[in-house]
Amino acid sequence: MAITTYAELQAAAANWLVRADLTQRIPEFIALAEARLNRVLRARLAEAEAALTATVGARTIPLPAGFAEPLALWIIPAATREPLRFVEPSVMAASSQPGRPVNWSVDGTNLAFDRPCDQPYALVLRMLTKFALSDAAPTNALLSAYPDAYLFATLCEAGPFLRDDALAAAYDARLERAIGEINTKEARSRAMRTLVTDAPRRVGGDFDINRGF
Question: Which residues are 124's β-sheet partners?
Answer without folding.
Answer: 51, 74
